[in-house]
């Protein structure tokens, strides 16, 4: 390449560059499966030498001030710029015009694309010159501006004037601000004092030309700082930081499934930039936004950035893997064969190793269901699966289970060959996600499951891993919303052989219930929502250390108890019930659920976090709990009515689930979630789904007993039940 200087303008000629065939085909959107692909290739080969013969490449570079018009137009603070003009001359443009005039559109388009490709290559070839010129001026390149994507078309006239294109190369400009010859390009490179920066290339990530055929977006890199450690993950175009974190196995509890509602996916931007979205504005104060707080599910980075993770540590989530069965005290076992019983909950997963001979639990393992990254409740998981994340969800649950099984094997020293069966109790959605079934029909009327029958398959087939060589059984369900976990729970509570009528209420992420005995069982599920697990509550959180789980009010003064006696950081489900009950008792909330006007705007203060923030219970939180408790109570009342029994005729009320295990039943009566008539009948059973899976493994006649229970069960669909609606409205009030 020859470089000459004419005053302040650097002129470049004699470019030794070649047309890039790949780019030409890309510009024509001509892929190998295109029916005319071969024809285009042939034409390209034929045209090559002719086009080279007609290309007359020249370039101009000028270092000068950023013109005021442009600085003003796009709010630019930098003052200096380099103007770069490249052209392939008049002849090649005239040649393509001729082809179009003759009706040979393919040739015309090919010539245009070849000229464009040559222009791109010229630009690349200029990089070394520009680096050197910038270095001489102790400057770097901050950004590239090109019409019409970065600056308006009329700015081409300003650039044309500035670089003296007419005088230097005879290049004109039309009234539509197009260069003449048309195969000419001009850009402005904005200079910076930072010599290390050299952003001359096209930055497709920031470019508005979404349909540009050459669009190629390399993933940005995100440096993540957490607990003093740092690691880097790539984030692709249109991928949120939350999705990038999940894709790299960084577990994040995304309660709302990335809808920008729950606020649990908080990150702090330390370097780089992230737009403030309307969801951010709703979740963070002005100061927090200034400090860089953003919702990772709404954050789509356009450049490399550095973030700090601010996630609730759920590694110590209190997981109820207890059930009122036999547990080996010593953990030692003389058993020679074992089973593994598993409860896959929407929030947590519990695994127990059971001795076949001793019928005792030898080892327990529990973990958070990492699918929480896709949303806290079943609806968000169904949605995520339907949005194309079915495989990721299946991989996530398989991974959690395999981790647990490996830990059991490692800690107990048993051989994988000694495991004779794995039994899983889970709700219908969890079962579908494990099996890799489509969830399309689970979320829409009439909510038809793909399969809820008992599944018995080789472990490897379901788990995609040969870790164990045994049978895996997934316990049967009754419907989409009354799944295998409830059947397992009923089995654990002896519904199949009980003469007396019992009620089982499972207060997990969904509120399922069953009423009956060995002759008749009615089941249903209520859309209680996640409030009992801290979901949708302003300061709600899972049962982790520091979550408020007990509240006592003395007028407006609150005394709190937290999990692990750690400083308070939020409210778990039990804490939510406690504070609601206490607010009612102290009459800060009236019977309609209205919070005292003193606290109406900012919420009732319960405790302060270690960094001085007020943990409050708001009017919206009271409404959430009203809806949840009314749903449970309405469900119980409807089942009793449909069954034709009174409170007195119910012998035992089993409360299952993590929440049910910890609840102070007095408080549940106080807010009217359960009728006071049940006061002496409550029996908390913990993880009854796990208990049922264990029982199934050790029972001689599990298949028959379970089948009988499923056959006996009839589902009451509460959403279309008139009485349920009446009960629901009635129990929305506090007593
Ligand atoms: S999308 Fe990329 S290649 Fe296309 S014009 Fe924009 S920056 Fe250039
Ligand atoms: S707000 Fe981001 S996951 Fe809920």
Descriptive report:
With 735 residues, the protein is an alpha+beta fold. 34% of the residues lie in helices and 23% in strands. The protein is built from 22 helices and 30 strands. The strands form seven sheets. A six-stranded antiparallel β-sheet has the order 1-2-3-4-8-5, sandwiched between helices. Strand 9 and strand 10 (229-235) form a beta hairpin. Helix 1 (21-27) packs across helix 5 and helix 2 (37-54) crosses helix 5. The model has no long low-confidence stretch (mean pLDDT 88). The structure holds iron/sulfur cluster (SF4) and FE2/S2 (inorganic) cluster (FES). FE2/S2 (inorganic) cluster binds at residues 254-256, 258-265, 295, 297.
Layout of secondary structure:
Blueprint: E1 2-6, E2 9-13, H1 21-27, H2 37-54, E3 58-65, H3 68-73, E4 80-87, H4 90-101, H5 105-136, E5 140-145, H6 155-162, H7 165-169, E6 172-173, E7 179-180, E8 184-192, E9 220-226, E10 229-235, H8 241-247, E11 266-271, H9 278-283, H10 286-290, E12 293-295, E13 305-309, E14 338-344, E15 348-355, E16 361-368, H11 378-412, E17 419-426, H12 428-435, E18 455-458, H13 459-463, E19 471-474, H14 484-492, E20 501-507, E21 511-516, E22 521-526, E23 547-554, E24 557-562, E25 570-571, H15 573-585, H16 597-600, E26 604-608, E27 614-617, H17 619-643, E28 650-656, H18 657-662, H19 665-670, E29 682-686, H20 688-698, H21 702-712, E30 713-715, H22 722-730
Parallel strand pairs: 9-13, 14-17, 17-19, 20-28, 22-30, 23-25, 28-29
Antiparallel strand pairs: 1-2, 2-3, 3-4, 4-8, 5-8, 6-7, 9-10, 11-12, 11-13, 14-15, 15-16, 18-19, 20-21, 21-22, 23-24, 26-27
Bound molecules: iron/sulfur cluster (SF4) and FE2/S2 (inorganic) cluster (FES).
